[in-house]
Amino acid sequence: MEICYIETAHFPALPVAAPASRDHIMTTFLHASPARALLWIACTLAAVPAACAAAPEAAAPHTYNFSPVNQWNLQVSASYWNPIIRYVSARSGVHLNLKLGRTSADTTSYILAREVDFAFTNHLFSPDRQKMGWTVFGRRNAPPVHGQLVVPADSPIRDIRDLAGSAVAFPGPEALVAYKTTYAQLLRAHIPVTPVFTGNHDAAFTQLFAGRVKAVGANSQLVAAWSAREGNAFRVLWSSAPFNELALMASPRVPAEDVRAVAYAFMSMHQDPEGRKILAAASELVHAPAPISFVAAGDADYASYRAFYADAPANLR
């Protein structure tokens, strides 16, 4: 129901000398001549829209879209993040809306198109994207991750040179740890492969164990989680240097006070009984090796990403 603030109106032949009771107003109306009554109704109806238009409205709370990189399939990703985002919104007073694309590349495209203002990602550390001005304010409290080239444990392939001429799955062309580090190693070793982009890690592993690809370029954290969840064993052919986990980031459009409120809600979540319950459920959902929590982080924690780009093949920067 819309509430309008209507200033006192003066209607012809019906002056208002003092505040009147509802009964008095109705009596005046009922005893008025038909012409005067119709005039009163017409004037009232004409005044209401103008008064509503001029009435002060309470500012609606701003909603920010939050886009985390698709690390799992859509159903798991939504089930993981929605309870966390609802909690952070309630605790911070800053309304966040989960915005997920069909693939990790789609989700990143929302960031690049400036359709979101908060993200959980490692796709913004290239020299060009750093110019967008996004800042790091946190990360999950998890060990560093590695880019890995993996095959099933019972695969005859034991060296990355054995992948020459094969199809290799990757979650997406935006994935720095899973794709860019592993594919850069193949390029440096002059090992030609056919990249197959599957949209997320779950799809990549599914294709591997279905025999459609020979290997997967993956994030070590998600290799371990898939193995725990699905019971499949892997052989690691190659592993990169360590990188910090994905970053919680905010766009430069978000006021500092909103960033601080959101950051505090994330960082203190594990200290609150309700927050711990949500984090425990998220950990169980993805078979995380330890309970999930969030900690403060800054741009300096992602120096290894910038170092990778400084030395990466030109087509991966």
Explain this structure to me?
Residues 1-56 have low confidence and may be disordered. The protein folds into 3 domains: 22-54; 63-144 and 245-316, D-Maltodextrin-Binding Protein, domain 2; 147-239, D-Maltodextrin-Binding Protein, domain 2. The strands form 2 sheets. Strands 2-1-3-10-4-11 form a 6-stranded mixed beta sheet, with helices on both faces. It starts with 21 loop residues before the first helix and ends in a 6-residue tail after the last helix. The radius of gyration is 29 Å and the shape is globular. It has 317 residues and is of the alpha/beta class. The protein contains 11 helices and 11 strands. α3 (74-92) links the parallel β1 and β2. It has helices spanning 22-31, 34-54, 74-92, 104-112, 127-130, 176-188, 201-209, 220-230, 256-267, 273-286, 303-311; strands spanning 63-68, 95-98, 118-121, 135-140, 147-152, 167-170, 194-197, 215-219, 234-239, 247-250, 294-296.
Query: Which spans have pLDDT < 50 for at least 5 consecutive residues?
Result: 1-56
The second-level CATH architecture of the largest domain is 3-Layer(aba) Sandwich
Number of H- or I-type helical stretches: 11
Span between termini: 53 Å
Return the average pLDDT rounded to an integer.
86
What is the count of β-strands?
A: 11
Helix and strand pattern: HHEHEHEHEEEHEHEHEEHHEH
Which CATH class of the largest domain is shown?
A: Alpha Beta
Q: By helix and strand content, what is the structural category?
A: alpha/beta
Strand content: 15-25%
Q: The CATH topology of the largest domain is what?
A: D-Maltodextrin-Binding Protein, domain 2
The tally of domains stands at 3
Please give the radius of gyration in angstroms.
29 Å
How many strands, what sense, and barrel or not for the largest sheet?
6 strands, mixed
Q: Could you say which overall geometry the principal axes of the C-alpha atoms support? A: globular
How are the strands of the largest sheet arranged? 2-1-3-10-4-11
CATH superfamily name of the largest domain? Periplasmic binding protein-like II
Helix content: 40-55%
